[in-house]
Design goal:
The complex is a heterodimer. Chain A is an alpha/beta fold. Helices cover about 35% and strands about 15% of the residues of chain A. Chain B is α+β, with helices and mostly antiparallel strands. The longest helix of chain B is centred in the N-terminal third of the chain and has 11 residues. Classes of the chains: A alpha/beta, B alpha+beta. The structure holds iron/sulfur cluster (3 copies). One iron/sulfur cluster binds next to helix 2 and helix 4 of chain A.
């Protein structure tokens, strides 16, 4: 492994920038993501920073069951993120539609149909610890040695 | 000035501070055992009462499937909302989650089920599919034919003069087989869950 790659790995492991996008949730999961920022879980001590700007982000947190208003828009947000990047589905909604997945609703889950999803965090809502663990595991599996593996 | 700088630097470079600055970690990422997780088996035998499936509010979250010689509830992550109702509903204590079972025992709580059958007569064509699909009807009147006609008064519902008539709503077990068999979506089963609690004995809190 080259020295440059080693430095990049080191730096990236402590500098993950996150944007989150709500594609039609009940707000439960948004509140849990918010709890990650609060002192109790303190997401920044792991070197994870929340920006909410896709052009600055490495990780996109997708929350919600994909309502019709998000067709095309979510893919647009995803394309704006520079590589290396990863999307994480937070909560049951982007995985299965959760309680909203019933007859005569307009949602279109799973979100993995629309953009590539690197990790899914089940739960309604998932706990902040589970969200943090997912971001950390994606960091290790997606960003480590990225240049070496994508020449 | 020099001495205040000295004090300042001395304060700032305390070994304790430097250690905290470099290695500080708040609470580790662990979930306390009393938190409600996804329900897990306790090891008791599932009697196929299906109460868990009836109580579950999340579509597709729980299924009772064949496991070896018997049955076992299977929780689907990504659908389950960890509400714990299946744990409370099971009469045999097959599932556990957090301290629900202990709390139920301590407080003497239980769940009572009943079901209402709602048929939209505007949509219903009187085809009788629901009557023949219903497993309770099958038990009560094995002779029931394709049209859902029956001379037996023990069935839940039957077709009389081209119209569906519900006779024994109280016998419904809430399986929703009829909902799935109706071509027009005319029949709906509403589940009514009542929580009950035994009176607290005198002298106890
Ligand atoms: S998974 Fe549950 S808490 Fe999260 S957005 Fe969906 S319904 Fe709300
Ligand atoms: S915990 Fe709740 S949502 Fe999950 S399987 Fe049991 S009843 Fe269904
Ligand atoms: S829910 Fe099941 S038991 Fe009840 S009426 Fe329908 S088929 Fe029969």
């Amino acid at each position: 492994m080259s020295l440059l790659q080693r430095i990049k790995n080191k730096v990236r492991a402590r500098s993950i920038h996150v944007a989150y996008v709500d594609v039609g949730s009940c707000n439960g999961c948004d509140i849990e993501v918010l709890a990650c920022l609060a002192p109790r879980y303190d997401i920044e001590q792991y070197g994870i920073y929340v920006h909410n700007n896709p052009r600055e982000a490495d990780v996109l947190l997708v929350i919600g069951a994909y309502t019709p208003g998000w067709e095309e828009k979510l893919a647009m947000v995803w394309e704006k993120i520079p590589s290396p990047k990863a999307a994480i589905a937070i909560g049951n909604c982007p995985i299965s539609g959760c309680l909203f997945n019933r007859r005569e609703t307009f949602i279109d889950p799973p979100v993995r149909k629309h953009i590539p999803i690197a990790a899914e965090v089940p739960g309604c809502p998932p706990r902040p610890t589970e969200i943090l663990q997912a971001i950390l595991s994606v960091r290790d599996s997606v960003f480590f040695n990225w240049e070496a593996e994508h020449p | 000035m020099a001495s205040s700088l000295f004090w300042y630097v001395r304060e700032f470079f305390r070994a304790e501070w430097i250690r905290k600055f470099l290695f500080a970690r708040t609470a580790p990422l662990v979930t306390p055992p009393h938190f409600r997780g996804f329900p897990e088996p306790t090891g008791r035998t599932c009697q196929h009462a299906l109460f868990c499936m009836m109580a579950c509010p999340a579509p597709g979250a729980i299924e009772v499937v064949h496991a070896g010689d018997g049955w076992m509830p299977k929780i689907h992550k990504g659908h389950c909302i960890r509400c714990g109702l299946c744990v409370e509903a099971c009469p045999n204590g097959v599932l556990k989650s957090g301290r629900i079972l202990e709390t139920m025992e301590r407080e003497g709580t239980s769940l009572i089920f009943s079901f209402r059958i709602a048929i939209d007569l505007e949509l219903c064509t009187g085809c009788g599919n629901c009557c023949t699909a219903c497993p309770v009807n099958k038990e009560a009147d094995a002779q029931m034919g394709a049209g859902g006609h029956s001379s037996n008064d023990e069935v839940i519902m039957r077709v009389q003069d081209g119209d569906i008539v519900v006779i024994h709503e109280d016998k419904c077990t809430g399986c929703k087989t009829c909902e799935a068999s109706c071509p027009n979506g005319a029949i709906r089963i509403a589940r009514i869950l009542e929580g009950s609690q035994e009176p607290v004995p005198e002298g106890v809190q």
